[in-house]
Structure formats: C-alpha cells, structure tokens
Amino acid sequence: MPRLDRGGAEPVEQDHGPAKEIKQDMGNAYILDAVRTPRGKGKSSGRLHETHPQELLATCLRALPERSDFDPREVEDLVVGCVTETGEQGGCVARHSVLAAQWPQEVTGVSLNRYCGSGQQAVNFAMMGCAAGFQDLVVGGGVESMSRVPMGADKSGLDGHNPALRELHPLVPQGISADLIATCEGFTRDDCDQWAASSQARCEEAVADDRFVASMVPVCNSDGEVMLDRDEHPRPGTTAESLGALPLSFDQMGDYVQKGDELSFDQKAVSVYPELDGIKHVHHAGNASGIVDGASAVLVCSDAYLDAHPGAKPRARVVSMATMGDEPVIMLTAPAPASEVALKKAGMTWDDIDLVEVNEAFAAVVLKFLKETGYDGDKVNVNGGAIALGHPLGATGGMLIGTALDELERRDATTALVTMCIGGGMGIATVIERV
C-alpha cells in the first residue's frame, strides 16, 4: 500500500514487540460515504427501543444510495460488527438487514464479533477486500440494540465458561479492568471526572454547532414517523463537580466471587498484578461509556470502482490499519500499541496525525492512551466521545470513522487515526487520509 512520505519526530517506542512492515504492492481503498443513526438511550424508555436492530441498520443502508448515487446491486458484501449475536441480533444480522432494507437479494452479508472493536473491524475488512482488489464496492459497519438485546444476553460469560482458560487468565469484567488501569497508573477519580466533563462539554459544543448532522440519518417507524433524529444520551451542563456526586459502579462488583472460584474479581486482578495492595475504584456511570442503541454504515470502494465510475467522489483513503493484543486481565490497554503499529506500517509518526478518536469505553482508557503516546489531548475526541454520546458496541467503530472524517472536512485537515480498546486484551487502529 502506498505510504505518505511525511516528516516529524520519531514515534514513542513501546514494549509490545516489533511491528511488521508490509512490502507488497496493493491498491487503495476509499471511503465514499459514512452514515449513522442517532444514539438512543439503551433502555426501555429510549426512543429507539421499539425499533428492531435489523431496522436500525437498514435505515443506514437505505440512506447510502440516496446520498452517494450508486446502485446497491453493485455492493459485493455487507460486513457488520455486532457484539451480542443472539435473539434479534442472532442468525446473520448483516444478511437480514440487507433484506429488511429491500436491497437487491444478490447482496450478501456477514456478521462478526471482535467485541467493542467489531464495527471498526468490519470497516477494516471492507477496506482490505477493496485494497487487495478482490472486491470493488463493500459496506462495512455495525449495529447494537442494547435496549432490546442487552449485554450478557448471549450468556457467554467472561471466558466462554472454560475453566482451563480461567486458570490461565483470571479474566475480570471490564469495569474492574478500567479501575485496574487507574490504580496502576495513579489516575484519580477526579482525573477521570475531569476528562468525562470535558467530553460532555465538547459534545455540547458540537451539537450546538450541528457537527453531527452531516452523517446522521433519522430513524423512522413503519408509518414514516421520526422516532429519533438526534443523539439522546448527552448530558449538557455536566461538570466534574456534578460527576463527583455519583456512586461508584464497580466497587461492590470487585468483591464478588464467581461460582466455583475462590478469589473475588479484585483479588483476581491483584493476583496478576501483585505489586498492588488492592484496586482503587474510580469509575461510575458518568465517566464510563453510555449504554445506547444505534447503527453505522461506511461505503468503501477500490481503485477499479473509481475508474469505472468517474462520477464517484471519494472522501478519504485508508492509509493503514492494525490490531494488537495486550495482557488480558487489564484488558483495555492496547489502543496505543495498535496505533503505533498502524503508524509504523504507514511510515508515519504522531506528528503526521491531525485528529484522533479514542473510544471512551472508560475515562482511564483515554488517559492511559494519552500517557503512553504523548499525543495532544486537545486533538483527541474533539467533539466528545462515548462518555457523552454512548457506545453502541458493534456500531461504534463505524460511527467513529465517520465522525473523524466529518471533522477532518470541517477543519480542512488531512489525517485521522481511530482506535478502540477491545475485550480480552486487544486494540484496533485505522489511519485515514482525506482525498
């Protein structure tokens, strides 16, 4: 894949092993468009609760050809991230959504689960197919109706209920992992609340300035009535002081002992990090990502598609992508390593990146990323993140890519990096460049 020839300081070295550089010649993958639904509160009182998850994704699919003037029959596949693949999101939610959108029956669909990175991985797979020349027009994205198919509905547990795996890696819930990060790094509750308050303030400014309007498509019911046309989760006026009054979310969970275990979740974490005296719990509902419903779709094409469709207007080119694993108990620390690999593959440094989107699963995740990379926090999540907007699991990755692209265009900037922490100790990163 062609690389940007840019100058800048050397990247921060990490102890995560050498990055593999790709030497083979490849084509390009381009983003033609990106859309998303609003994020609805992930509870029965949320405005999207009455909307089936297939219909959420179908809303995005129906919007794409209206905006980008392409024939859906030319789409070779729909790649969809979805974390809780059971019930209404079971089967193959990608193919079901193609049919629900009344797209041509020739269009196929495939669903995948890389936990919270599912939607970003889906878009990356779409980009891979186009860059490799095996496909010419693909849609990647994701969907998650957390009000209708709640976390844990698939009953997979933390480790697939495998005692042998639990013996090797005493996995804990992500909230415990986030508090473990804060404990190891010395992040206080006030540190986390300050970041959370800034996320809300940035989001409030972005909403007032209509910065999300370009990519957002309203969700309507079968009668055409608009159910939701704006994000439902943000809390304007939130301050660090108001967040300080919220009760902690994971302190009691830390004392819980699973059936068949001898150690509590906190004790499990300390068994892997014995230098700690205990876990200092700092996260709560206000400095962690919100539970919401939503869907996203990103239209991706190849060089050959652009050659055959001279009227098509690409908005961005994918520069590089990467995944990276890290210690699975602390779990949420791999965004920085994954990003470093993606930058090295591109021949770039942090000085070459104009904007970064780091999924705000928990405030400590972003603080850890900033500490490890040294990147400027004023250029991270400039319109707020999942703390303010919510995190519809499988849909978030596609949403972040669209948000980053919209902001690049608004600022007349060039490059953005999108990264997410992922369950089981993984991270994912994508670098895009405006065309």
Topology:
Blueprint: E1 29-36, E2 40-41, H1 53-68, E3 77-81, H2 93-100, E4 109-112, H3 118-131, E5 137-145, H4 163-168, H5 174-185, H6 189-208, E6 219-220, E7 226-228, H7 240-243, H8 251-254, H9 265-272, E8 292-302, H10 303-308, E9 316-325, H11 335-346, E10 355-358, H12 363-373, H13 386-389, H14 396-411, E11 415-422, E12 426-434
Parallel strand pairs: 3-4, 3-5, 10-11
Antiparallel strand pairs: 1-8, 1-9, 2-8, 5-8, 6-7, 9-12, 11-12
Write up this protein.
With 435 residues, this protein is α+β, with helices and mostly antiparallel strands. The chain contains 14 helices and 12 strands. The strands form 2 sheets. Strands 1, 2, 3, 4, 5, 8, 9, 10, 11 and 12 form a 10-stranded mixed sheet that branches. A two-stranded antiparallel sheet has the order 6-7. A hairpin with a 3-residue loop joins strand 11 and strand 12. Helix 1 crosses helix 2. The longest helix is centred in the middle third of the chain and has 20 residues. The protein is globular, with a radius of gyration of 21 Å. The two termini are 15 Å apart. The N terminus is likely disordered.
